Amino acid sequence: MTQLVRDPVLARPVESLEEVGPARARELRVLGIGTLDDLLNYFPRNYQHESSEGSISILHGDDIQTARGEITAVNYAGGPRPRFMATLDDGTGKLSLVFFHGAYLRTKIHPGMKIRVQGKLKFFGGYPQMQNAKWHEVDDETPAVAEEKFRAIYPATAKITSDAIARIVQANLESALHGIEEWFPEELLKTRGLMPRREAYRLIHCPARLSEAIAARKRLVYDELMVMQLGLGLAKKMRDGRLSAPVLRVDKLLDERIRKRFPFQLTSAQQHAIWEVMKDVGSGQPMNRLLQGDVGSGKTSVAVYAMLVAVANKMQAALLAPTEVLAEQHYLTLTNLLKDSSVSIELFTSRTRRQTRGQMHKSLANGKIHLAIGTQSLLQEDVEFANLGLVVVDEQHKLGVRQRATLKSKGLSPHYLVMTATPIPRTLALSYFADFDLSTINELPPGRQPIETRWVRAAESIKAYEFIRSQIERGRQAYIVVPQIDDSGDDAKSVLSEYDHLNRGPLKGLKLAMLHGQMPADEKQAIMSAFRQREADVLIATTVIEVGIDIPNVTVMMIDNAERFGLSQLHQLRGRVGRGSEKSYCLLMSEGQGDATVARLQAMTKTNDGFEIAEMDLRLRGPGEFFGTRQHGLPEFKLADLTAETALLQTAREDALELLANDAKLSRHPALRAALTAEFGDDIGLSQVG
Fold it and tell me: Would you say the C-alpha torsion 345, 410, 235, 38 has a positive or negative sign?
């Protein structure tokens, strides 16, 4: 969280600070510390308790221990893990010292020498040992370390240590604290058990004990969460209070006409989502609804229903997708669904022919096109709508916040419906999407079978390819997804090399096709069309097929180098199969080394539940990576961990809403208002578009 620089002292460049010379300034800037304000907000990653000096016989394994004695023996072992070893004796006991890669110590530490050591104690076979301890030579006159210390540990680099950063912080902390202003009234702080803001900054850097550091962190985390919740709350108030949107009505006759278009019965979850959407679009205020549901749950049907209601109310609708492949899939689905209807649909992508583009834009501007489906091509300045009433965005986390704002600005506060197949854990829904109303489709259409997921080691690859052959012999098709387009010199599989390898080896004789993002748009479209028509048995691709592809005949998804994909991405790719009535399979090819990789792959084999997957992905990756906060236009946290602080998040949300209810313009909270402006800039209103 960026502290607003109100006091000129906080704007001082690092070069002018105590304990900082030109070389140190360069290293601090590498860490993102360019001003005194940045230094103040460079928080410790941990704390270390250092004991006073004690005899070896009473040392214990907790905290950092300090002892002194005489070196009685030394030794050096080479090999793949070279180490210098010494024995320290103080008369009460012996302590083993091990310094990995410590060849240089052979000329520095020798028997008969007296040293003091400091480090974490471990016990091996009942004997105490310190590894890579700090040490220095002492004599009988050197005073003992009498006081215990509780020291902050900062994120550091090879060129600037935590100790060096701590000294710089200590030297400049008092002057920095003068620039800190309180944001909240004393009554609120007392109610929530929070310390003053200035004191929190002091104690997070210089606590005397762990409890002080915890209390300081709680206050600063609360501040981070409050700034975010206030930004979202202001956006929601602006949307609900000042903006108006077209009223879209649906009666029984229109409802029946739309439902007849679907070749299936809507699930109860879909019908409930439709009811929530219709309530929004009939209110006269802009809908801002997030529609989430697992892959294959039928979100698109809800969006199509809403789009047809817009058209029936003489309004246009736009469907924005992050990729051409997904936009073309939506276009194909809608074209088939609305066959023989009077609804005019057009596809706007980069492959739209130049000679027809001008006419399409003209038809969109005069209202002859009712449904516009496209990628970023819909965001061009020369694209105008006659009466845009509804914006639907699919997989919105793959699009930048400014792009979505641009599209929304093309209508007079149109209704806004976001679809995502990445289920959002409650903690994120409460935070990053606090300005959205939430609809969830939590059931799959009848007839859908769970996808069987198997973790396949390299030694079992032949059996895996034989299984793919057996599925193709039954008239099915398969996807094989690899991490990259061409070989990059590492161990990752590529589309080009795997296409050749499989053609000549494991899948020889089958009809293979390949697809990747660098292909011309026309070629990609032709390949997908041919695969859909079963002109190829296996499609070898990158993650360009991650979302939106719906080919019911494909029953196998093989993901090679599965360790290189995130958990939610693996789940999305798995969702490309299981679209028909036949049993489907997902094969994860990986050697699975590393705790995080093993956790991901095991999770995939144990559950098909996207919400379980999303919760685990959030725990493994953290909120910033899970749902790109930079694209979202919201601040990134320095301290807050949404996976562990749901209760404080809920508290901040409640306090933010109450504060805005009593002081909508924050006129009675000038420091807080200034902090919001500093965090969101002039684009604070952008948070209302996701």
Answer: positive
What number of other Cβ atoms are within 10 A of residue 79's Cβ? 6
Helices (H), 338-440: 354-365, 401-408, 426-431
Cβ–Cβ contacts within 10 Å for residue 46, how many?
A: 11
CATH class of 1-45+164-180: mainly alpha
Res 286: pLDDT: 83
Per-residue pLDDT tens over the stretch 217-259? 999 999 988 888 887 777 666 655 556 788 999 999 999 999 9
Distances (CA, A) of 132 to 105, 118, 128: 11, 9, 14
Domain borders along the chain are 1-45+164-180, 47-152, 252-441, 452-607
197-205 vs 210-241: helix crossing angle, rounded to 10: 140
**Mind giving me the DSSP string for 581-626?**
SS--EEEEE----SHHHHHHHHHHHH---HHHHHHHHHHHH-HHHH
Residue 627 in this model has a pLDDT that exceeds 50: no
Using DSSP, state whether 302 is helix, strand or coil.
helix
d(CA 425, CA 431): 10
Task: Please name which of 40, 371, 60 lies closest in space to residue 173, comparing C-alpha atoms.
Answer: 40
H or E stretch covering 117: strand 114-124
CATH number of 452-607: 3.40.50.300
SS3 629: helix
Q: For residue 663, which amino acid is it?
A: D
Helix (H) and strand (E) counts in the chain = 23, 21
**pLDDT tens-digit series, residues 278-314:** 999 998 888 888 888 777 778 889 999 999 999 999 9
CB 121 within 8 A of CB 131: no
Give the start-end residues of each E strand in 487-537. Answer: 512-515
